[in-house]
Amino acid sequence: MSHQDTLRGLASESIREGQALADAQLGRATGLRSYQLGEGQGLVGEQERIRDRQLSDYLLSRSQPLSEIATLSGQAAPPPAIATTGLNVPAVSVAPPPIFAGAQAQGQFDQGTYRGQVGAYGARMAAIGQAAHQIKD
Fold first, then answer.
1. Together in a domain, 45 and 104
2. Does a structural domain hold residue 34?
3. Alpha helices (H) along the chain
4. How crowded is residue 59: how many other Cβ atoms within 10 Å of its Cβ?
5. Geometric angle at alpha carbon 52, from 46 and 56, rounded to 5°
6. Rg (CA), the chain
7. Are residues 54 and 23 in the same domain?
8. Do residue 74 and residue 119 come from a single domain?
9. Is 87 a domain residue?
10. d(CA 5, CA 12)
């Protein structure tokens, strides 16, 4: 192998290493840029959410009508308010469902079930204790 071949080999090896190093640097730069873009988009989204929350809090504190809120937020104004039940039928006076009474009844049922389970557990433990005592004697 001549001196020229050795130099060519070293040159091509250094070119490969240089290309590998450049590829690695490009990959790191691309990854960093992608991360920075993602962070920027996240910050913009968070700022928009904060602005929207502040605007809604401000409008609620002023008791703005829904039509003005819609105008300020760039949405279509709601139709004139007509009280309905949600079924496209004119509103009638309907008593609300007894949700609170139902919740109380469910709580009482759960307490009774718990007491029964605790009592059954106590009875089993007492039976096991008596059986162990009888075996001991």
1. no
2. yes
3. 3-61, 66-73, 99-136
4. 16
5. 145
6. 38
7. yes
8. no
9. no
10. 11
**What residues in the chain have per-residue pLDDT under 70?**
1, 59, 63-70, 72-95, 137
Q: Whole domain around residue 114: which residue ranges? A: 99-137
pLDDT in tens, 31-58: 888 888 888 888 888 888 888 888 777 7
- Please tell me the distance from the alpha carbon of residue 92 to that of residue 31, in angstroms, as a whole number: 62
Whether 92 is covered by a domain: the verdict is no
Do 135 and 69 lie in one domain? The reply is: no
CB-facing half-sphere around the CA of 53: CA atoms within 13 A = 6
The CA–CA distances, whole Å, from 88 to 6, 13, 36, 93, 95 equal 90, 79, 50, 15, 18
Q: Which among 96, 3, 48, 108 is positioned nearest to 56, based on CA atoms? A: 48
pLDDT at res. 112: 95
Give me the residue label for tokens 């105008």.
Answer: 71
Extract the tokens encoding 79.
């139709």
Q: Which amino acid is at 126?
A: A
